[in-house]
Amino acid sequence: MKVDALFKPQHFEWSLAGKVATITLSRPERKNPLTFDSYAELRDTFRALVHAHEVKVVIVTGAAGNFCSGGDVHEIIGPLTRMDMNGLLDFTHMTGDLIKAMRACPQPIIAAVDGVCAGAGAAIAMASDIRLATPRARTAFLFVRVGLAGCDMGACAMLPRIVGQGRASELLYTGRAMSAEEGERWGFFNRVVGETDLMKEARQLAENLANGPTFAHAMTKAMLHREWDMGLDEAIAAEAEAQAVCMKTEDFARAYRAFAEKKTPKFEGN
Q1: Which residues contact 45 (CB under 8 A, 6 or more apart)?
Q2: Does residue 266 lie in a domain region?
Q3: Quick one: angle between helices 85-104 and 36-48, nearest 10?
Q4: Which of 15, 183, 198, 199 is the most exposed place for a label (fewest CB within 10 A)?
Q5: Domain contains 93
């Protein structure tokens, strides 16, 4: 089935240009918050991307100068205060499943962050593989500010690995906004670019990755995820097996032939 037939979301914008898909969270009048439906649709989209072989890289961004303000106060937070425990667990498992789906989809995910990036929006950026930001990006894991723990959507596992335990602890305990400059200095953002250049830079990076050895990129992503809870010896053994699999690909043979012929390899992802 063609990608265009697979992906027709109702709660965010989807576009495909060449090998690069762009997901745009688009409720600009409220800084692009999530609803129960958009959480579920995002989860299902990232799950489906496992089978979307035409898509090589995914960009996630927000409309009209903001990334995502988190869960909609009126459409999510209000109803949560009236749910029983079973309903609450269904919701929290669903939000966690979104993060798991992002990490399990083989395509590298680039978050292009402008303006507000808060709560679940910060978690989506955190779960992406590469993050670009504008100088006005403000990232806040603000769960504590609504009386909740910072341990939401994998934040206590992932954020310390990105910015360090002490910095993550401060952000999760206080719920304060991390500036773009802090985020770049701490390693949360790969780089900060001008507002008008954000999508251009994200697409250029995405196209660069999409034109590379995408089977190998998927292997890199899988191993980055798997090796979090491995010891060094186990990780080295797992990487040896993963690299041997990559050495059986046509892309590896293409790269050798191109090197021998003093040409630039043209990878095809197989």
Answers
A1: 7, 9, 14, 23
A2: no
A3: 30
A4: 15
A5: yes
Cβ burial of 5 (10 Å; 0-12, 13-18, 19+) is exposed
The reported pLDDT for the residue numbered 5 is 55
What residues have CB less than 8 Å from 253, skipping those under 6 apart? none
**In a domain? residue 268:** no
From CA 28, how far away is CA 13, in angstroms rounded?
A: 12
Tokens of residue 230, six digits: 């491995």
pLDDT of residue 255: 96
Residue 24 parent element (H or E):
strand 20-25
Cβ-in-10-Å burial (0-12, 13-18, 19+) of 241 comes to exposed
CA distance 110 to 204: 11
SS3 103: helix
H/E stretch holding 13 reads: strand 13-17
State the 10-residue block means of pLDDT for the chain, 270 residues long: 68 96 97 97 97 96 97 92 96 98 98 98 98 98 94 97 98 98 98 98 98 98 95 98 98 96 96
Residues 88 and 148 in one domain: yes
Structural domain contains residue 7 = yes
Q: What is the pLDDT of residue 81?
A: 93
Among residues 210, 229, 251, the one where a domain terminates is 210
Query: Within this chain, do residues 126 and 235 fall inside the same structural domain, yes or no?
Result: no
